[in-house]
Design goal:
10 strands, Alpha/beta knot, 4-stranded mixed sheet, 246 residues, 60s Ribosomal Protein L30, Chain: A, elongated
């Protein structure tokens, strides 16, 4: 059964959804479940981009008041694309592609706002991690003003692997972080480029910072020492656009 929060709950409705055109983004499964039907669902999605989360029953009860039978699916209004397929296609078409990598952005409205700005600035694709990031919900779609339907989104197992792949494809990687004295305006962004934005609370993870080509910050002249991630992303993207239009 489904409700207005883009969820499907119950074993048989989720099995039916998997056999239809519905795109499932995340599965929440009760910890220590031994139901063979739930195991059947897990096997069905093994080769897909669906994120599986094993959670306490209290979490499932918060997600729906219906008879969830130990499993809830979060559906997505969009498909997700394989990273390699999208990157190869874009590189064959453009000399200086532009990518955004989101390192576990958790707020769906920030996610939607970033998608909107990315589409307006000609970003070719957005890369997110399967686990730990915000799902694509109605709020994401609304905040993106429909831009989510116009830009490919790739889900990957690990952000670091995606960065290594992009670097091997001669795409420069730049991480937005306050943990550097390098200002973004001093970097050359007029090249094949991927910009990495970090989560709202922790920023870009240390393991990611250690492998990117460049770290860059924005000048902060007031008393507040950080920007909203969607605002910071917009500033980075428009600096890239400024340089490319000179």
């Amino acid at each position: 059964m489904a409700n207005k929060q883009n969820t499907i709950f119950g074993i048989h409705p989720i099995l039916e959804a998997l056999d239809s055109d519905i795109v499932i983004d995340k599965l929440f499964i009760q910890k220590d479940s031994i139901n063979p039907k739930i195991e059947e669902i897990i096997k069905k999605i093994e080769s897909s981009d669906v994120t599986v989360n094993h959670v306490p029953i209290e979490k499932l009860n918060r997600l729906t008041h219906g008879n969830h039978q130990g499993i809830i699916a979060i559906t997505s209004p969009i498909p997700f694309y394989p990273l390699e397929e999208i990157v190869e296609k874009i590189l064959s078409e453009k000399e200086k592609p532009l990518f955004i990598i989101l390192d576990q952005i958790s707020d769906v409205r920030n996610f939607g706002a970033i998608i909107r700005t990315a589409e307006c600035t000609g970003v070719d694709a957005i890369i997110i991690q399967k686990k730990g990031g915000a799902p694509v919900t109605g709020d994401t779609v609304k905040t993106s003003a429909g831009a989510i339907f116009k830009i490919p989104i790739c889900k990957v197992d690990h952000i670091k692997d995606a960065i290594f792949y992009l670097k091997a494809s001669n795409i420069t990687t730049v991480s937005a972080t306050e943990k550097t004295e390098n200002i973004v305006y001093d970097l050359d962004l007029n090249k094949p480029l991927a910009i990495i934005m970090g989560s709202e609370g922790k920023g870009v993870s240390k393991s990611v910072l250690n492998i990117v080509d460049h770290r860059a910050s924005l000048p902060l002249l007031g008393d507040v020492n950080s920007l909203n991630v969607s605002v910071a992303c917009g500033a980075f993207l428009y600096e890239a656009i400024r340089q490319r239009s000179l």
